[in-house]
Amino acid sequence: MDVNTASQAELETLKGVGPQLSDAILAARRERPFRDWADFTARLQGIGPVRAGKLSAAGLRVGEQAWPAAPAASAASALRP
Length: 81
What we know:
Elements: H1 8-11, H2 19-31, H3 37-43, H4 49-57, H5 69-79
């Protein structure tokens, strides 16, 4: 589900998104759409890399993109001998 098009009800179906966070997302989105995950985390207080990764794992996308940090870090560590 894309953060720039989801309704409040849709956002709240995601694990980790309650009324307070969905309100904050919608208020920030009214100012301007989120460009990417960096923009999303910068504009929402309390959303850091760990929480962004959890929201992405729950199905949240920004511009159809999943949170990039967790999968890349896991793949890189899996390749190390």
